Amino acid sequence: MAFANKTVDFNLSEGTEANVDAELSHELGNAIIVNITKNNFEGSLIVFKNYLATVTDDEPLEGLDVEVSGDQVTVTLVNNSVVMFRATPMNPSLMQTGYSYGSHAAYMHQVLNREIARGRVGAEIALRAGGNNSSVVNYTSIGVHIRDRDRDRIVLGWIRTFLRAGSLP
Hints:
With 169 residues, this protein is mainly beta. 15% of the residues lie in helices and 42% in strands. The protein has three helices and eleven strands, in the order E-E-H-E-E-E-E-E-H-H-E-E-E-E. A hairpin with a 2-residue loop joins strand 3 (32-38) and strand 4.
């Protein structure tokens, strides 16, 4: 999160490719998506407005920029902006799990990245059948947590830390 104008450099390992998703970034207008790939790994750098900031409005952010040059991605942030990395889950054969991802998985992650950048996804929760742990990532002013879980049931709790126009219900 940037509370002033900042530049952040990401140095990529050898053989890693990065490119700005120009079509999606243009569609979003106030966000930039950078696709990062290496072998069978995929992820995205998402640059967007900080929806957790206490002072946000509907004005677009001016000055956000991303430059990809060789093995380096340079992100120019402005006050109340964010850059985050979101990895796409790996192929199930590499994760040693029996769960089968459909062909729609890549599209689903593209949609999630887009909606995170728009401030429309409040949180993301990852659970695994038979596992004892979970992961919760909050993207907006909603604090989601797992209150209780059982074999076929989970109970979620949430706290809205502040209200803003257009926030999630």
